[in-house]
Amino acid sequence: MTFDPSIGVPGKPWGEAERDQWRVLQTAQRSYADDVVSRMDALAERFERETYGQIEYGADTYDLHAFRGGEMDPALPTALITGGVHGYETSGVMGALAFLEQSAAAYAGRVNLLVAPCVSPWAYERINRWNYDAVDPNRNFRMDGPAREATALMEWVRSAASDFLLHIDLHETTDSDETEFRLALSSRDGVDHDPGLIPDGFYLVADSEDPQLGFQQAIISAVGQVTHIAPPDETGEIIGSPVIAHGIIEYPLAQLALCASITNARFKTTTEVYPDSPRVTPEDCNRAQVAAVCAALDFALAN
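That's the Peptidase M14 domain-containing protein sequence above. Prediction below.
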């Protein structure tokens, strides 16, 4: 547990003193260098690696890395794959790396690939949703926003290409969302906690402005071969949103400043793996992310 409910005063939003109290609890539990950068080093022999930013948080400095599939070909469509926007959502990071290691070569000459496997390395090390400033990057993908991870990624993406066919953003929904992070959010913002239900299984978040339902369903079909798909709850919802098709909900991505909104891609989605199920292993979760990426690319390139 990285949240202490004694932080702050109920009903009053946090100030800097409360954020300092929260930061003291956020100790590194794993290594970005060992787990992620070492695999990026090996991939640099096969793909063009770029360091698109550097973030300093307290005594810690992190280089932000991404990959291109090669030289950008203006005759080809462009696809963006992002992982680790929330550092604690492990299969988003590992799935993006596994895609590069196992599957990306199959798309050479067919699409310009841009892959940012670990958008939030400070949070990755601390298995946290927020960054050092107690800010959720995935509600702050706007150029004037407070999340440095988000603005750095947006700057790199805009410098790399102007037109995109696809963006798939790799996430997880975990039990800790309910037991820890929503409690912390309520405390930080000085509001009452409204308990929710964590869905048991994989689901997708489409863009309510343009859901592209056939695209979403193709991904669900592929992932269903790897792991189970989340059913709706008794109200017909998943995580408080109406189910629009099997395993699919929708959000207004741009309005909420979510990562999947940062390009003009026709096809966009956010994956949500459920790693806490007794029915899956960490490797199953990684495989589900890779299956989602490949299905997304296959459908987008065919349509």
